[in-house]
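Many introductory courses stop at the sequence. We go one step further.
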Amino acid sequence: MRKQLRRFLPDHQAVHGNRWLAPFANTLLHPRLWHLNRHSAAGAVATGLFCGLIPGPFQMLGAALCCLVFRVNLPLALVTTLYTNPFTIIPLYIVAVGIGQFVLGGGHVAFAPPPEYDMRNPAGWMHAMSTWTYGLGQPLVVGLVVLATLLAVTGYFATKAAWRLYLIRAWRQRRAARKRPL
């Protein structure tokens, strides 16, 4: 499984040669940030899923900081945050508000639809979007934390299980290949 993942992720040398990342070389070139095994992959997926729900453009920054703290695979965590995009963020936030209302035990508040995107006035749309998000308040914040935690735990164990199943399949194929006569 490591071989398939390495095809899509940048390597240690690519970061080492990047002049923009040179000031952070001591921190970013730690070997555990680039090592790929089932533990670092599961931690990276969990980190990416949790940080993917951070509002605004800070998802990758949050994932990178968490990778530095937990010493999990940095590139995989950054790629995993991409599950949130303009098409998925609104449904995820709707689910988060529902979870937040359930956890807080409050009455079911009617959900106002988000503002429609105005191509002629993107700044106005951003202001309307931030006002809409702020109006959701406490249920959204609680729901985002709970949903991010649920996604992270699920992603962690799903990655561990998928890696384990891949290994079992590879072992069985090797055993079968050894038993075949030439």
